[in-house]
């Protein structure tokens, strides 16, 4: 053991402390969050949402107890019936039933309504709005909006009725899909897609894509946190932000390429030769058959009821 | 496929380079016998992981030959369905990066992947999954998604996914890396137990602390990707010049009691010091 005086090869500046704060003690300006931070916060939000959805999917509710294949087939049948319905009354009558099922499945009804109705008016409403005008759908004007080059412009009864029907269809369809995805873990939902004759290879790729989405999201988040930890001054320079996004995308591409190679080796190592095999699901119980029958009864009542309206 | 007189693995004068430019193995010759516990030792980037991938038939030598169970392992021989099935079910590989190995949407599907691929029925595979998860004390994780698992849990799932195939040979790449001390100890005990049941263990590591208890033989890689020495762990650990030359220990300068000093560094030194410091602390506390 030899005694030495200083650690070798350490530059002199590294052994000296440096002042971080302004020596005059002034307080700096608060900076707004940049677009990179906002985008990444949203991405992290996706992860939290997925974890929350998994939490709901494991609650002891009506749909959680039901076999995924039954839920998938009934939802598919209900979606077809919703798209075939021609009267809004039938759709309006169906909506409370969906809400009751949500409540029986331990899904917060207010959260469920907000989740659907927050996006439906934004996306569908904007698309449907022009069709309610008399220049697109001729008919009796019920909401006059003024004149344009001597022509009356307004919303027509026929336009509002068909627009309302489309919005109701979209809202109900989204409600059904949200209810299915909230009450079913993703892995089981993917496995159940085989019931609808989706090829096994497609399900395998979809499952892996979903699994690695979270992994890569974690990498992006880590890269941003590492950058933020070394950012001393205000960083609202959009050019630097764009450069960061570009370099992150490049690094992520490299990482995902290396990862995909290793994943393939891990699959080959365990006997994968290109023919995916999956665990067969258990047989259906009486409860599942009962739920399935009730679902198809609802489909039949909706279609017959709609037909009765003419 | 199996010949009892032949060594389990016979690697002869193997060279391998990535992209034809970056040498990873240079003239490696090695024999591994049935039921042995072998450690591949070496600094980062010396070729340990590459050799493990070669032993698992995931990459193939640019030069030289590799035989397993008395049969040559090449791209051509692994295209034979029967040979491929036999080889894959007898050799299991636990990757260093558990994220690469745990690729299925749920733990149950992950562990069932191997058994199903080697032709087991769903019922048999399900039984294997339950038994393996129970043995590794992770049965409660069966329906979890990989992103809901901690690093230690992912490692257990990765090991379960390989053990479910009940291979004769287990290859571990840096098995204890990034694990907490408790999980490390659990894994070491598991490896010893698996070997006692007759399984051959080959592991890549640069941790010297647990070698003496864990393996029968060490293969030391030099930084030029050649094999520097093959011997029993006691003799390898005593050869300080070899360990220094292969970058497994190094000259280390730090302070104890306000005094800087240099010495060869491995964890044993710190353990001894901590033991000594603990004794001094207890003596001091006793005085007050």
Task: Provide a brief overview of the structure.
Chain A has 310 residues and is mainly alpha-helical. Chain A has eleven helices and three strands. A two-stranded antiparallel ribbon of chain A has the order 2-3.
Outline the structure in words.
The complex is a heterodimer of chains A (310) and B (288). Chain A has 310 residues and is mainly α. Helix content of chain A is 64%, strand content 5%. Chain A contains eleven helices and three strands. In chain A, helix 3 runs antiparallel to helix 7 (157-182) and helix 3 packs parallel to helix 11. Chain A is extended. Residues 1-6 of chain A have low confidence and may be disordered. Chain B has twelve helices and twelve strands. In chain B, strand 7, helix 8 (181-196) and strand 8 (200-205) form a beta-alpha-beta unit. In chain B, helix 5 runs parallel beside helix 7. Residues 270-278 and 284-288 of chain B have low confidence and may be disordered. In chain B, 41% of the residues lie in helices and 25% in strands. The longest helix of chain B has 21 residues, at 267-287. Chain B is globular, with a radius of gyration of 21 Å. Chain B has 288 residues and is of the alpha/beta class. In chain B, the strands form three sheets. Chain B has a six-stranded mixed beta sheet with strand order 6-7-8-3-9-10, with helices on both faces. Chain B has helices at 48-55, 75-78, 81-90, 98-101, 107-117, 122-135, 151-163, 181-196, 211-214, 233-238, 240-245, 267-287; strands at residues 9-18, 22-32, 37-41, 63-68, 71-72, 91-94, 169-173, 200-205, 217-221, 227-231, 250-256, 259-265. The chains are: A mainly alpha (310), B alpha/beta (288). Chains A and B meet through strand 1, helix 1, helix 8, helix 9 and helix 10 of A and helix 3, strand 6, helix 4, helix 5 and helix 6 of B. Strand 1 (2-3) of chain A pairs antiparallel with strand 12 (259-265) of chain B, so a sheet runs across the interface.
């Amino acid at each position: 053991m030899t005694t030495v005086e200083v650690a070798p090869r350490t530059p002199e500046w590294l052994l000296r402390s440096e002042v971080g704060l302004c020596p005059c003690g002034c307080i700096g300006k608060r900076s707004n969050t940049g677009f990179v931070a906002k985008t990444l916060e949203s991405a992290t939000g996706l992860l939290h949402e997925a974890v929350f959805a998994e939490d709901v999917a494991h609650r002891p509710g009506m749909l959680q107890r039901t076999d995924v294949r039954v839920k998938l087939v009934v939802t598919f049948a209900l979606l077809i019936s919703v798209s075939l319905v021609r009267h809004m009354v039938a759709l309006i009558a169906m909506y409370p039933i969906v809400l009751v099922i949500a409540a029986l499945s331990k899904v917060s009804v207010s959260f469920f309504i907000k989740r659907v109705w927050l996006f439906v008016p934004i996306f569908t409403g904007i698309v449907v709005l022009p069709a309610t005008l008399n220049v697109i759908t001729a008919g009796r004007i019920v909401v006059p909006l003024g004149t344009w080059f001597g022509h009356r412009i307004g919303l027509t009864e026929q336009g509002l009725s068909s627009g309302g029907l489309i919005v109701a269809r979209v809202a109900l369809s989204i409600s059904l899909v949200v209810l299915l995805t909230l009450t079913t873990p993703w892995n089981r939902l993917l496995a159940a897609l085989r019931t609808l004759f989706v090829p096994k290879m497609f399900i395998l790729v979809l499952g892996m894509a979903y699994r690695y989405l979270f992994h890569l999201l974690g990498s992006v988040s880590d890269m941003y946190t590492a950058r933020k930890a070394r950012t001393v001054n205000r960083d609202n320079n959009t050019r630097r932000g764009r450069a960061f996004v570009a370099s992150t995308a490049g690094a992520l591409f490299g990482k995902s390429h290396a990862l995909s190679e290793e994943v393939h080796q891990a699959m080959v190592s365990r006997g994968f030769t290109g023919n995916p095999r999956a665990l067969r699901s258990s047989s259906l119980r009486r409860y599942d058959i009962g739920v399935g029958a009730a679902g198809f009864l609802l489909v039949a009542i909706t279609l017959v009821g709609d037909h009765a309206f003419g | 496929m199996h010949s009892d007189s032949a060594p389990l693995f016979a690697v002869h004068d193997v060279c391998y380079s990535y992209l034809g430019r970056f040498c990873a193995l240079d003239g490696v010759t090695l024999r591994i016998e049935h039921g042995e516990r072998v450690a591949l030792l070496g600094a980062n980037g010396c070729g340990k992981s590459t050799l493990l991938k070669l032993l698992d038939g995931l990459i193939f030598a640019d030069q030289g030959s590799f035989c397993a169970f008395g049969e040559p392992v090449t791209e051509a021989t692994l295209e034979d369905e029967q040979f491929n099935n036999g080889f894959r079910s007898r050799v299991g590989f636990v990757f260093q990066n558990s994220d690469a190995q745990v690729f299925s949407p749920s733990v149950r599907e992950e562990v069932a992947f191997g058994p199903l691929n080697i032709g087991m029925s769903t019922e048999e595979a399900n039984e294997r999954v339950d038994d393996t998860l129970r043995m590794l004390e992770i049965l409660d994780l069966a329906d979890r998604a990989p992103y809901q698992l901690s690093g230690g849990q992912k490692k257990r799932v990765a090991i379960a996914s390989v053990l479910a195939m009940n291979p004769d040979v287990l290859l571990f790449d840096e098995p204890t890396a990034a694990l907490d001390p408790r999980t490390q100890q659990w894994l070491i005990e598991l490896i010893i137990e698996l070997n006692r049941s007759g399984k051959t263990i080959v592991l890549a590591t640069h941790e010297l602390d647990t070698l003496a208890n864990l393996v029968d033989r060490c293969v030391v890689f030099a930084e030029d990707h050649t094999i520097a020495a093959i011997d029993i762990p006691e003799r390898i650990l005593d050869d300080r010049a070899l360990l220094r030359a292969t970058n497994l220990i190094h000259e280390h300068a730090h302070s104890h009691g306000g005094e800087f000093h240099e010495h060869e560094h491995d964890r044993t030194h710190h353990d001894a010091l901590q033991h000594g410091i603990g004794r001094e602390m207890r003596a001091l506390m006793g005085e007050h």
